[in-house]
Structures are given as structure tokens and as C-alpha cells.
Amino acid sequence: MKRLLYLFLIAMLCVSNLFAQNREVTGCIVVFETIPVVNAKITLKSSKKIVTTNEMGEFTLSCNSKDKLLIIAEGFQSKKIKINTKKTSPILVNLELSKNSEASQIAVYKGHILKVEEFDKLVEKYSKDNGYGRYSTVLEIIKCEFPTLQYVNGEIIMRGIKSITGNNAAKISVDGVIMGGSILESLTPNDIVSIRLLQGSQAAIHGIRGANGVVEIKTKQGS
Questions:
Q1: Sheet holding 214-219, edge to edge
Q2: Which domains does the chain have, with CATH numbers?
Q3: Are 34 and 74 a contacting pair, CB within 8 Å?
Q4: Quick one: average pLDDT of 7-15?
């Protein structure tokens, strides 16, 4: 009798541990940060169980706290993610279109995109290649594209600029907002739409802050 009771307690403990290790995970699959990806397949690595996203790109599943998810949708690059046991908020996964030139058409044809008009506009916007993707940093873009600029002690100086105050540093404008030079470290080349140098009357729109010239940067988020 005692042996049976002991085995029963052991079994209950194992079941309890199993449930303790599992957790419910909710998430949302999108493209271009905002557009839901419908009927994307999310596969659990441990159990091979498959769930699909709804019309809002949302999904819910129960998985092991150390599980991995494989996300697949036709027209998009597949993506693997690890479950973060410390995060309780929903998972947001941003998929990227496949390298195939017809990827966007495939995504729509297979029913993964319901907001077709908005999706098509973003595809056109992001498909314009300025070649910046070959650079490692935005500062590298500036140095290579504008060789006449000087970069001294973390500041960009335009040729011919000599301020009477002793500060010759050009200002950095990102999507119309003047930023500190450190902003260049947080920008990625693939997010850059254009970079221009403004001097004289062109820089006057920034007032006295543009006296030493302005490096005007436009990003995909701001354009």
C-alpha cells in the first residue's frame, strides 16, 4: 500500500513539473512592422504542433519554456525564435519578404496579406535600392559618399567651415529633427533613404544651428 502511495505521489510530482514547465505564448506576425501576416504557420520544435495566425496576424499556443518556434509563410523568409521565459508580453515577429522578385505577389496570392493596398505601397517604398546596404554603418556611408568631409573627435566638419566660436561641427538632421552626433550609431544603413549635405542658404531652414552646415538624413520610417 505504501509503495502504491509512493508511486502515486511521484507520478503527481512529475505531472506537476510538466505543467510548470509549459506556458501559454501569444504573439503577432507582421511585415513592415505593421501589416498582419495571415495564415502564417508556427511550428513548435519540441512537439511539431502547428498553429496558424488569424486575420490580425495573432496566434496563441502552449509550449515548453525552452521551446523554439519556426515561422513560415509563402513569399517570406522563414524565421526561428526562442521562447523568452522572462518576457510575459506578446511576441512581435517582423517577417521579411523573400529575395524572389515575385515575393510580394506570392504573399498576396497565397492569402497572407489582407491589407493589400497598404502592403503594395510599402513594397514599392522599401524596394528602392540606394546601395547603402553594402555599408556596415551610417558613418561609413557618410565618409565614403562625401570624402571632403572631415571627422574629428566624433564630429563631422564640412570643408570651408570656420566658426568664430571655435565649434565647427555640422549638425545632424534625421527626418527633420536635429540630433546629436551619437544618433549615427543607432541608425542602420538599410533604413536610410537619402543623405544630403546642406550649407549656406540650404541650411538656413535650421536657423543658427545650421551655421556650420547640416547632414540631412531621411529614413524609411520618416519618409
A1: 177-179, 171-174, 214-219, 192-198
A2: 22-127 (2.60.40.1120), 132-219 (2.170.130.10)
A3: no
A4: 46
